[in-house]
Automatic annotation (TrEMBL):
Entry-linked Pfam families: AAA_lid_14, HTH_8, Response_reg, Sigma54_activat
UniProt KW keywords: Activator, ATP-binding, Nucleotide-binding, Phosphoprotein, Transcription, Transcription regulation, Two-component regulatory system
Modification 4-aspartylphosphate, positions: D54
Species whose genome carries this gene: Aquibium carbonis
PANTHER family per the UniProt record, alphabetical: TRANSCRIPTIONAL REGULATORY PROTEIN, TRANSCRIPTIONAL REGULATORY PROTEIN RTCR
Name used for this protein in its record: Sigma-54-dependent Fis family transcriptional regulator
Domain (Sigma-54 factor interaction) ranges: 132-361
Domain called Response regulatory: residue spans: 5-119
Keyword Repressor listed: no
Keyword Chaperone found: no
One example of a Gene Ontology biological process annotation: regulation of DNA-templated transcription
Gene3D superfamilies for this protein: 1.10.8.60, 3.40.50.2300, Homeodomain-like, P-loop containing nucleotide triphosphate hydrolases
Lineage top rank: taxon: Bacteria
């Protein structure tokens, strides 16, 4: 795969040069436009993974460039660079579809981390049918429901906290079913600027509105016979909820400005971390749409409720991160697994992935320690896990939780061998089996 392309729009030669050098060092390709005119000329054929743009340009502003590009070619993750005083404009830009803005002078390390995250999220190869969703007891009913869902074309609604793996689950359903060779089209409903949302979803004909220079296929059309994944469906504005409902009822839609209808053939998967039922009760989400999308419902458990998966995920994230950084391999210290098991993971699998990637990239000697994983302090993680200074649970609850964590860590260290884990824990294999059964740990 070629290096991700960043289209940088910046008229300041000094800042532009240092950004270009640093980004290229980090493995990105950079195309540098020094004015609004150059950006407009470069954008249509460039297909950048990310746009990094100054707001004020000598011959215009980045805002106008972004709007016309989004209107004609769809959203591209865009980060604006602003000087003090442009903040109001930057906030408006984010509301209109830009991903974020940074205030000059900004921290380049953080910007590079952000870019990596954007590229990773947009790269589907890390997930799919081949991704083990999890071996834990809490994930088993989820895996079964998703496998059954893959075989039928009914709508699926995925619920769960942010970062718990809803998009991974959606791709899994798509990749495991008969539509796997057709497109999987993810749409972040929360990130669609209101005035472009119609055109992004349904497409438009040339001249359908000011600025519509050519025809544009919308996301419904892009999905073809594949899967349309509507992430953050709870953020879909009410007028669009009405339009989506009509599409689901008639299985047809119309491009903006078009006379004829087109068939909608894709399978629908929706996801949200919001409480749709309460939204329905409050009138913020249409009940009829909720009935339509809520056919097969599946709740992804938060990572803290599936501790048996933590060691597996750490191992696979560490291996991938080592490969990405050109390291021969990484060994994970038991203390790191212990610390991970004690952490509350408010950001779920995404937080684990980010922590492991950072730990592998910055750690030394090919070993991942608890301190690498929690540079902010292992104790901070523990406190969160146990709910601050509250003394919660009896002594035996706490002893059992610690015993369980220890067994999971030993099994992870021995690659699942109960014999070696029993040796490590200095108990008989029978004792180990009994405890595994009692704590619901898979062998
Ligand atoms: N089983 C898994 N195996 C590998 N990676 C995973 C797994 N589950 C989640 N991830 C990774 O964790 C991150 C978050 O997952 P995902 O985007 O699916 O979560 P989400 O619930 O859709 O989050 P949000 O609600 O914020 O959209 C992604 O980088 C994803 O690749």
């Amino acid at each position: 795969m070629s290096a991700p392309l960043i289209l940088m729009v910046e008229d300041d030669a000094t800042l532009g040069t240092s950004l270009q050098q640093r980004l290229e060092l980090e493995g990105f390709r950079v195309r540098w436009a020094r004015s609004a005119r150059e950006a407009r000329a470069a954008l249509p054929g460039a297909h950048p993974a990310i746009i990094l743009s100054d707001i004020r340009l000598p011959d215009g502003d980045g805002e106008a460039v972004m709007r016309s590009h989004f209107a004609n070619f769809g959203l591209v993750p865009t980060i604006f660079m602003t000087a003090y005083g442009d903040i109001e404009q930057a906030v408006r830009l984010v509301r209109d579809g830009a991903l974020d803005y940074v205030t000059k002078p900004f921290d380049l390390d953080q910007l590079v981390d952000r870019f990596r995250d954007i590229v990773r999220r947009a790269t589907p190869q890390a997930i799919g049918a081949g991704t083990p969703l999890g071996r834990s007891a809490a994930m088993q009913p989820v895996v079964e429901t998703l496998s059954r869902a893959a075989r039928v074309a009914l709508p699926v609604l995925l619920l769960g906290e942010t970062g718990s793996g809803k998009e991974v689950a959606a791709r899994h359903v798509h990749d495991s079913g008969p539509r796997s060779s057709a497109p999987f089209v993810p749409v972040n409903c929360g990130a669609m600027p209101a005035e472009l949302a119609d055109s992004m979803l349904f497409g438009h004909e040339r001249g359908a509105f000011t600025g519509a220079a050519g025809t544009h296929r919308g996301l419904l059309e892009e999905a073809g016979e594949g899967t349309l994944f509507l992430d953050e469906i709870g953020d879909l504005p009410l007028p669009l909820q009405v339009k989506l409902l009509r599409v689901l009822e008639t299985r047809a839609f119309r491009r903006l400005g078009a006379a004829e209808e087109r068939g909608f053939h894709a399978r629908l998967i929706c996801a949200t971390n919001r409480d749709l039922e309460s939204m329905v009760a409050e009138g913020a989400f249409r009940e009829d749409l909720w009935f339509r999308i809520n056919v097969i419902t599946c709740k992804l458990p938060p990572l803290r409720e599936r501790p048996e998966d933590i060691a597996d995920l750490m191992a696979s994230f560490a291996e991938a991160a080592a490969k990405e950084n050109g390291f021969p391999g990484v060994s994970i210290e038991p203390s790191a697994i212990e610390a991970a098991l004690a952490h509350a993971w408010p950001g779920n699998v995404r937080e684990l992935l980010n922590r492991v990637q950072r730990a592998v990239a910055l750690g030394a000697n090919g070993t991942l320690t608890a301190a690498d994983l929690f540079p902010d302090g292992v104790d901070a993680g523990r406190r969160q896990a146990s709910g601050g200074d509250d003394i919660d649970g009896s002594l035996s609850d706490i002893r059992e939780a610690a015993e369980r964590r220890h067994i999971v860590a030993a099994l992870a260290k021995t690659g699942g061998s109960t014999k070696d884990a029993a040796d490590l824990l200095q108990v008989s294999r029978t004792t180990l089996w009994e405890k595994m059964r009692r704590y619901g740990i898979d062998g």
